[in-house]
Design a protein that fits this description.
This is Endonuclease. The chain has 279 residues and is of the alpha+beta class. It is 24% helix and 29% strand. Helix 4 packs parallel to helix 5.
Length: 279
Amino acid sequence: MKIFLNFIICLFLAVGSFAQKKETPINIITYNIRYNNPSDGINAWPNRKDNVKALAKFYDADILCVQEALADQFDALSEDTNFAFEGVGRDDGKRKGEFSAIFYDKTRFLKKDGGTFWLSETPDVPSKGWDAVLPRICSWVRLYDKTNKKDFLVFNTHYDHVGVKARIESAKLIKKKIQEIAPKLPVVYTGDLNVTPETEAISTIKSFLQDAKEITIEPPYGPSGTFNNFDFNSELKNRIDYIFVNKGFKVEKFAVLSDSKDRRYFSDHLPVFVRLFFN
């Protein structure tokens, strides 16, 4: 009888181990790609476009969240890829202005819902909020992972670069919206938040989500900062780009990617990468 019980226990552990190995991770990159500004000269978008796309492909991004993408950049990122997308231009809710878009592998994920809201007192219509200089948005998508057979949500945003109150209130609004839209499902929240980790805007998010950098199983990889200002000699101290998750995910890897070519970065921000598993 004891031998039989030991056999059953071993079989149970083996099945559990197999099930864990069978689960497929999700690779996510968030990346402020810098808007298409001809005055950037050698760093203008046409000179960077192929490198940005190559980076996403090399790191096997299942989901690519971008900020500052104008319509032509938005289009370019989906050309000759498996990406479908969620997102609108912030100026008119269509194609005018910058996108905070979410690109996802359409061969793996099925969109079940999605949308965009404005970071303002009137989130359902194009608008500026509080002391913000520009309209700001958060796009989101609910996806079904056909590989792991689970639903989850991704939210992607870009806070105002000037308005202190706007950043604080944006964080509060995002907290409210995520709790309304995804009260029980696994959630990923990404973005260029234009604030460093010690600020109130970050502590508001950390009151209900976890900073992927702080909970990664493997040690964080790459520099601390994410803003380089197209300066290859930047000290990379300012961390303003983030990925957060709720307890529906565990973070296996976290990295700030400092890829470059010919001593030039592909944007004035560095991309942030995570590899996630469902809990």
